Amino acid sequence: TDYRIVESLGATEGAPAAGTAELIVDITTTGATLQANALKVLDDGVMLKSEANLVASLSASWTSAHRRIAQSMLARIAAEEEARTNRAVRAAFRTVPSNLAAEAMSRFGVVVVASQDDEIAFHCPKKKIFDVSEWLIASGAARVAVAHLDYVFTSTNHLADRLEARLKGRSVT
Fold first, then answer.
1. Domain locations in the chain?
2. Angle formed by the axes of helices 158-167 and 64-85, nearest 10°
3. Structural domain 81-147, CATH architecture
4. What is the Cα–Cα distance from 109 to 16, expressed in whole angstroms?
5. What whole-number distance in Å separates Cα of residue 9 and Cα of residue 16?
């Protein structure tokens, strides 16, 4: 074989500089050790992304201030999730067909955010982008632009609503 897997008992990051390893598989949080040792992450080298769970105690004292803080935090989490799973789409037309927005909502589950005579903008589920783009071009769009979203804040927050539903009926101090 051309490789050997060995257990590391520490200081593995120094192995390439010492000439004892050409490749290291390691779990890193900040990447500071990688930078300090002139190591790099391969383009396709991320094998695992970390996850976190947020747990709220139903028996804790939930004051109005605590609830506002939780709602703010959950709004940020929900906004990131909405952005990660959707894309912003803008389509330019000579004239936007009158039924286009309604049809896009029913066919693809988009959320229309703006519509003018010659342009329509909406948020579209990421997995439907190519189908939507082809449909828009077939519907007369001259150009379709798709962009990543950083955050999408909405007037409703399913995460905060779930927490409030669980806390409902409790006295607030």
1. 1-51, 81-147
2. 150
3. 2-Layer Sandwich (3.30)
4. 50
5. 15
